Amino acid sequence: MPPLVQVSIVVATLALVAATVALVRLLVQARATAEQVERTMAHVDATIPTVEAAVDELRVVLDTTSDILARVDRVSSDVAGVSGKAREISNLVVNRLLGPANDIAAIVQGVRTGASFFMGAHKKRRAAETARASEGGNHNE
Q1: Angle at 12 (CA atoms; ends 11, 17), nearest 5 degrees
Q2: Rg of the chain's alpha carbons, rounded to an integer?
Q3: Which tens digits make up the pLDDT trace of 123-134?
Q4: How far apart are CA 10 and CA 22, in angstroms?
Q5: Does residue 44 or residue 1 have the better pLDDT?
Q6: pTM flag (> 0.70)
Q7: What is the chain written as a DSSP string?
């Protein structure tokens, strides 16, 4: 055999050995990775029921919250309606009762002022008549 063929066979053999070593290392790493994936999948499989239960609970909570918010919305619209009615009643009381009450108070104040004026004038006139009468004589003629 010529030496070139022998060298080629040796080089090919060495390349085949190197490829085999690399392939063995790759298979060892692939086996370790597969074992890790199996452990992870087992953990995921064990977690799935918990996640499903949490999602179911979340659905119940969201449904309950939706119901509560609907009730709150109805109550708030009822409160808005009641506050509108209360405002109308308040305006009615102010316009129909307090307006005339203020008018009556003004009339009473006017009557008091007028009576006080006339009583004051009457007292002055009586005081003047009494003063003239006490001076003596008949000054009324």
Answers
A1: 95
A2: 56
A3: 777 777 777 766
A4: 18
A5: 44
A6: no
A7: --HHHHHHHHHHHHHHHHHHHHHHHHHHHHHHHHHHHHHHHHHHHHHHHHHHHHHHHHHHHHHHHHHHHHHHHHHHHHHHHHHHHHHHHHHHHIIIIIHHHHHHHHHHHHHHHHHHHHHHHHHHHHHHHHHHHHH-S----
